[in-house]
Write a structure and sequence with these properties.
disordered N terminus, mainly alpha, single chain, flat
């Protein structure tokens, strides 16, 4: 009874949506070790697995960004001798990040397979991906537009055509100007 009171107190400060997604034993008090699951084969909810998967994807992105930052900071050999220790340090960091990435991808694959396994009864794949195959398409009656709406549409279309023509003329002028500038620069050299 004493162990359930801290658990209820810890859950009281959380929104009900988060309480339902907690794994078994995750709502224990901060000073106490988490309570073991009630059964050795107790199922973890697919929502919780998806949340772990989302965090794993965020970790993968973070590690990948760190790898790119390390490689961007690395200078290519240009004849200047740099510290061998610095290169070894960067190489070690890259190796560690790549090893961690491989582990994170394995973890993500396991989470995915477990989620698919747990939700296989919920997933009903459509027999065909093309909609309305084998079914008659019900025609929808479209009301004719009023004359004012049609006139406004025509006016807007005409304005769009005019603007497109103006933009085309400007692009042609800019292209010709760039050709002239490039020709002058090549003659100058």
């Amino acid at each position: 009874m004493a162990a359930s009171l801290p658990q209820k107190a810890a859950m009281a400060g959380m929104p009900p949506q988060q309480q339902s997604h907690l794994p078994p034993g995750a709502a224990s008090a901060p000073g106490q070790p988490p309570m073991p699951p009630q059964g050795a084969l107790r199922e973890i909810s697919p929502v919780f697995l998806c949340r772990i998967g989302q965090e794993t994807v965020q970790d993968i992105v973070t590690r990948t960004m760190e790898i790119f930052q390390i490689t961007r900071a690395t200078q290519l050999p240009n004849g200047v001798t740099q510290s061998q220790a610095m290169y070894q340090d960067r190489f070690g960091k890259l190796q560690e990040h790549l090893r961690q990435l491989a582990l994170l991808f394995r973890k993500l694959r396991l989470l995915y397979e477990r989620c698919v396994e747990m939700t296989s009864d919920l997933q009903e794949g459509p027999p065909e991906l093309v909609p309305y195959v084998g079914e008659e398409v019900v025609s929808v009656r479209v009301e004719p537009c009023s004359a004012a709406v049609n006139q406004e549409r025509q006016e807007v279309l005409e304005k769009v055509r005019q603007k497109n023509q103006e933009m085309k003329v400007l692009m042609d002028q800019m292209r010709n100007l760039l050709w002239d500038v490039n020709a002058m620069l090549t003659l100058r050299k």
